[in-house]
Amino acid sequence: GMVFFDLSTGRILTVYGAQGVILVVFFYLAIRILLRDRKRLNVIFAGLYLSPAIGILFNWIYAPLTDVPIVQLFNFFTNFGTIYAPIFIVVFDLILLKSEKMDMLMC
User: Fold this and answer.
1) Where do the TM regions start and end (predicted)?
2) For residue 46, which of 33, 54, 78, 79 is within the disulfide window of CB 3.0 to 4.6 Å?
3) What is the pLDDT of residues 41-75, one digit of tens each?
4) 3-state SS string over 42-64?
5) Domain residue spans of the chain
């Protein structure tokens, strides 16, 4: 097959090793945030970690696959999860800024 589908030792270490550590840490952080409180702000903040973690899960699934349409679909979900994550921090910041502004107006 193509090099893209070659599960070499380096690719296994990258996909299942390094990204596996990130996956575990991000799921841990998201769970800790959600267990602390389920307020809307915490759910949005947890999304910052959940989105790339779900993307990495898709990467784990498609790494050994060779069916091109499935690989392309799962690659899209992997990239989307990773690229979508910063939106959660932007929304989180906007909510904090809005609440600060409201606090200043109340004084």
Assistant:
1) 12-31, 43-62, 74-96
2) 33
3) 999 999 999 999 999 999 999 988 889 999 999 99
4) HHHHHHHHHHHHHHHHHHHHHCC
5) 3-106
Comparing CA positions, the residue from 48, 24, 46 lying closest to residue 35 is 46
The Cα–Cα gap between 62 and 49 comes to 21
Which pair of structure tokens corresponds to residue 10? 């380096």
Contact 48, 95 (CB under 8 A): no
Say which amino acid occupies 5: F
Euclidean distance between CA atoms 3 and 7, whole angstroms: 8
Cα distance from N-terminal residue to C-terminal residue, the chain: 67
CA distance linking residue 76 with residue 71, whole number of Å = 9
